[in-house]
Amino acid sequence: SGVVIERLPMADDLQELYCWIDSIPLSRAKKNIARDFSDGVLFSEVVHHFFPSKVDLHNYISTNSVSKKTYNWNTLNRKVLKKVLGYEIDQDEIKQLVGGTKGAIEKALMKVKSKIHRKKQARPAEKKSVARKTVGAGSSQVPVSPGALDRFSEAHRNQRIDEKNNIIEDLRETVAILQMKVQKLEQLLRLKDKKIDQLQGQMAQHVDDVTQR
Q1: Residue 100 — left, alpha, or beta (φ > 0 → left; ψ -120 to 50 → alpha)?
Q2: Residue 47 in contact with residue 55, Cβ under 8 Å?
Q3: Which H or E run contains 119?
Q4: Are 60 and 37 contacting, i.e. CB atoms less than 8 angstroms apart?
Q5: Is the confidence at residue 97, as pLDDT, over 50?
Q6: How far from the centroid of its chain's Cα atoms is residue 155's Cα?
Q7: Rounded CA gap, 21 and 116, in Å?
Q8: How far apart are the C-alpha atoms of 88 and 78, rounded to whole Å?
Q9: What digits encode the pLDDT tens for the residues 39-61?
Q10: 69, 99 Cβ separation under 8 angstroms
Q11: Which of 60, 144, 173, 190 is the most buried (most CB within 10 A)?
Q12: What does pTM read for this prediction?
């Protein structure tokens, strides 16, 4: 019942972690792991590798902005880590990750690696549990009552409804993000058109000056 001290990663643990990361195809080469993972994009790609249907990579944009890096990590927390793996990275850790604090990304990767491993191990067990509810021909197991099957079916339907609601919510957020991007692009286009008009006006004035000479 003493105080539990968090074990710091040993050299062998880190070597195993780096090998694990190297086995995952990522969009950018890893030169400085603290800096390269600071915007959350590569971290999202790691989780996407194992749960491709659960991670929308378009939600995470490479950036050097502290606020946008933080936004990426918070989005990852809300949309993926909490829903898929059942945990979140706290705000102090996010600040360290965004700032490229030494050892912060290794700690975060070790935790997500452990969570992914546990999730993958739990999946076959869940399938076996569901399979045991099915009454097969010549089965020696006690048949499941119709009421229990109905409750299981209802729970399954509710789970599907929740999943669809989550998808709708994610799509709405994606549409909002895309609309913001379109607005920014339109603003940039207007600025460029204005700049072109100014340059054309300057050129016309220059031609007039040369002609008058």
Answers
A1: left
A2: yes
A3: helix 104-132
A4: no
A5: yes
A6: 27
A7: 13
A8: 8
A9: 999 999 999 999 999 999 998 99
A10: no
A11: 60
A12: 0.56
